Amino acid sequence: MIAVRGSATAVLDLLPGVGLADTTGALSSAARNAEILVLRHEVALLRRQIERPRMSWADRAVLSALARKLPTTLRRHRLVTPGTLPAWHRRLVRWKWRQPPAGPSRPPLPDELAALMQRLATDNPTWGYARVQGELRRLGHRVAAATIRRVLRRFGLPPALRRASRQSWRTFLHAQARTLLACDFLHVDTVFIKRLYVFFVMEITTRRVHVLGVTAHPTGEWVAQLARNLLVDLGDGAGGFRFLIRDRDSKFTAAFDAVFAGNGTTVIPTPPQSPRSNAFAERWIRTVRAECTDRLLIIGERHLRAVLAEYTEHYNTGRAHRSLELRAPDDEPNVIRLPAAAIRCRRVLGGLLNEYHGAPIQSPRSPRETPSSAA
Question: What's the rounded Cα separation, in Å, for the pair 324 and 214?
């Protein structure tokens, strides 16, 4: 930006005591000079508000043509500097002599095919470029391995060795879901401000929950005994679980781990201060609090056991789960129920929760109808 060069003295020098208009009505030279000073001042005010004006090529052509008529000292204080004018010219030359667009060549890779490459590499971390190429060939797509490498790099996917070595905790949980158990503690405060602890175990693949015990003073021996009770309740199904996820609570002693080790189940402690590593159990704690314990006043251990027993039955048999395609853990996944003729409501926890079941409508008998005729 520049300041107005003319001061009060300069303005008086430009107005040598003559009128602003002569006898013919035209502007005098002093009036024109005053107008130029006013315009310069207005331009200076506008430059304070606009950081960088946007000019079209027509504006650039006009400024380039008129800038040649200005003295050197005035040319330095324009919207553009002398170095800008050659830059505009060089840009025009590049546009004139740039190469025309090439003719038809190899068609671009469809976005659906690139997304399929990303899916194959993400779902199968051990697959290399040739393995992905072979799978695409079986699906009817002929793509070079170099193209697959370029596409995967664009999506930020490294080669197979690096992808296989950086397996996340979530990937491990999904891969081992059928053989995983998760356990944790839930605490509930009674109306007498007494804290009770609930120990539960969840089967990850089915989301089935087992509430094993409630006490006000949990100990390592108590937790180990509940683990033995769980293996007895599971029976032959206990041999199908290979891993048990638990946190680093001091109540999980070596005796607790030994109970599952004898069953062939490996106990995996979560990293310190990482509740997401045991996300399934933490999610059930959030659910049971939101749907049950936070909406009731718990009196004591006996009351809490009864409440959790009824809620656990509802959770396992009558509650839809988003992770199970809106089925309950005990529902048969291969059975598609027909629309029910009548709907029956079953109240859970005194109407705190409701379950709805379909039942066929039985046609009422006529007063004149006898059992034999009905048959």
Answer: 28
64: phi > 0 → left, psi -120 to 50 → alpha, else beta; which?
alpha
E strand or H helix at 36: helix 29-49
pLDDT at 372: 40
Question: Where does the chain show beta strands of DSSP type E?
Answer: 180-189, 195-203, 208-215, 243-246, 266-269, 342-348, 353-359
Select from 3.30.420.10, 3.30.70.1170, 3.10.180.10, 3.40.50.2300 the CATH code of 173-324: 3.30.420.10
Element counts in the chain: helices (H) and strands (E) = 15, 7
Indicate the pairing of strand 180-189 with strand 195-203.
antiparallel
DSSP for 268-326 reads EEPPTT-GGGGHHHHHHHHHHHHHTGGGS---SHHHHHHHHHHHHHHHHHT--BGGGTS
Residues in the chain: 375
Q: What is the pLDDT of residue 106?
A: 72
Q: Which residues contact 253 (CB under 8 A, 6 or more apart)?
A: 220, 223, 224
| 342 token code pair | 């009548």
Tens of pLDDT, residues 156-200: 888 887 776 666 666 666 666 678 899 999 999 999 999 999 999
* 10: confidence class by pLDDT, cuts 50, 70, 90: very low
